[in-house]
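Lab notebook, page 48
Experiment: co-folding of the full assembly
Goal: obtain a model of how the components sit together before planning crosslinking
Operator: M.T.
Materials (sequences as entered):
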Amino acid sequence: GQQLNQSPQSMFIQEGEDVSMNCTSSSIFNTWLWYKQDPGEGPVLLIALYKAGELTSNGRLTAQFGITRKDSFLNISASIPSDVGIYFCAGLPSGNTPLVFGKGTRLSVIA
Amino acid sequence: KAGVTQTPRYLIKTRGQQVTLSCSPISGHRSVSWYQQTPGQGLQFLFEYFSETQRNKGNFPGRFSGRQFSNSRSEMNVSTLELGDSALYLCASSLYGSGVETQYFGPGTRLLVL
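Observation: model returned without errors.
Model output:
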């Protein structure tokens, strides 16, 4: 089946630093989504991308839909302690097909 | 508008038992998807229901089943529980489950099988 390769698996950064993570696939996706999951909770949608090349921001978060439609990245600027959590990318192949999720990037912020 | 709700939040069962989990989608949403999340496998798609019909199904054994009611609430059932079924079970809802929609997740039901 289709898979998303998300990297890095985990990151330890200092408060105030910028963070970058990405997802790649050998398949094309029509939609890319980025979620954040806090411990004991379900994933919360951060950013949705619908067009190749699209660059979208949500506060300190910026995500881009790769022009090949096979990748996406998420940047977090000036990280703060509440950014701690697991970030997931998810891709929607086409039509009424299920979301495909990456394995997640676990972010730890050191104050 | 209330979010996706799941009950119960926590559950402990023993091998061989069966379990039923419930999900109430966001009001007006007609598509409900279920996922299993484990540390090793990440988020894996179980199935999706739309208008009381199963529209998509993931690669899980027949012990995993679900249904959706006319009010869009959904249940999933796992029979003959195995230790490996211990996981966080998440449901997500969207309006129609189409390719341009986003899904909104509930907090999950954490199942522990002893």
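Interpretation: Residues 33 and 48 of chain B are 4 Å apart (CA to CA).
Next step: discuss with group before ordering constructs.
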